[in-house]
Amino acid sequence: MQQDQRAERLVTIFLDVALPLADAYAATQSSFRWSGEDRALVVAGTRIPIDSLSHVYLVGAGKAGVPMARAVVDTLRLNEDLWARFAGGTVNVYRDQSEASVPGVTFFPADHPNPNQASVDGARAALALLSTATSGDLVVAVISGGGSSLLTLPQAGICLDDFRAANRALVTGGATIQEINTVRKHLSQVKGGRLRMAAPDALFVTLILSDVIGDDLSSIASGPTVPDPTTCGDAISVLERHGLWARIPESCQTHLLRGDSGEVDRAILWRDRLSPRTHNVVVASNAVVLSSLERLLSSPGQGGAASRVSLDATPVTGPVETAVEEHFARAVAASHTPGTLLLYGGEPVVSVPPDAHGTGGRMLHYALLSARRIAGRDWAVLASGTDGIDGTSPSAGAVVTGTTMATAHTHGLDADRYLEAFDSYGFFRTLEERSGVRCLINTGPTGTNVNDIMLWSL
Question: What is the pLDDT of residues 276-288, one digit of tens each?
Fold first, then answer.
């Protein structure tokens, strides 16, 4: 198969098969259903009779906030009595999605990967709404990837600019998402279960689109509706372990060093009051999407039956450079079977020096490293985030072939220089402009987020 055909096939698989499997609307509706026979909402097998409810509230945050909110509202509208109990909602979403219209829901145009003022305004609006909820009310929260940035309310004494500076140091410092969120939770008034605590008497259901490997609920969007098992001391340890302590503002340092005297009281509150009336449901994840993708591509009629489709179920974590080397080695071992398609998923990390000012993200960096590694081979590699926004770039990722490096050289591009500047997006954008060869995957915000997907066609 020609390399450009391989690349085209990978793009088609990603756009037409993988992304629909991650559809946030469908995943949410399958977990939040109306049962007319029982006059009840059904959430992961649990029935909630509507006659027991006074009001229903909706809050949330994440890149999939719009379709998840729409799915909840569409379910509520299936019954007139149920819809009459809806008291409104507020959801923080990525800024480009905030113009969407869902009855009764206000969307705040928050930002990612660094929060903006709307991230704070929306958090305050959610807390104000929840403050009116009582024991006869149901709160439905929709949480998805990106929520840590999109839903932000710094602790007292920490201004937004300082929180942004700390966040920037964390997301470029090589820490895992769990480590990053350990710190962010202790700098926030809504993360680490604090959003749930704003309506302590209400029944609380959280529908979660997971972007965290292993589906650790306390890490997804920094766990706004689940108890926090970490401490300020844990946050300090993360910063010191990655050499980031000196890179966060003094106000953040002071807050963490002061510690949190309310940790014990919150643990008791969760144990005695909140946990029995809190239901957290993962509606979709990277692992679910990849296993479904493997099954579909291995079936007749999906273009995969004549090929060997191999899924590595081990989540991709750790340095992106290591991931590329491991995947290349496996590709070499598997290349004796022409037409093999290798599937990977996860969330590798990129450690960006403070003085690097390039544009890109994990998947664009992965793609550029892969292009160097497969140079001269009749292979293609696609690396893309499912949210449509890779790091600081406007693209989801890129697709490369064994001729990408040769084409770049012909048009005067030095891949090593772009890699050193952490400007992978700049490399691919310039390559497209000069050569006319399409590399970037431009979907715009997809309305979902289940980590990254990497495909190798051999």
Answer: 999 999 999 999 9
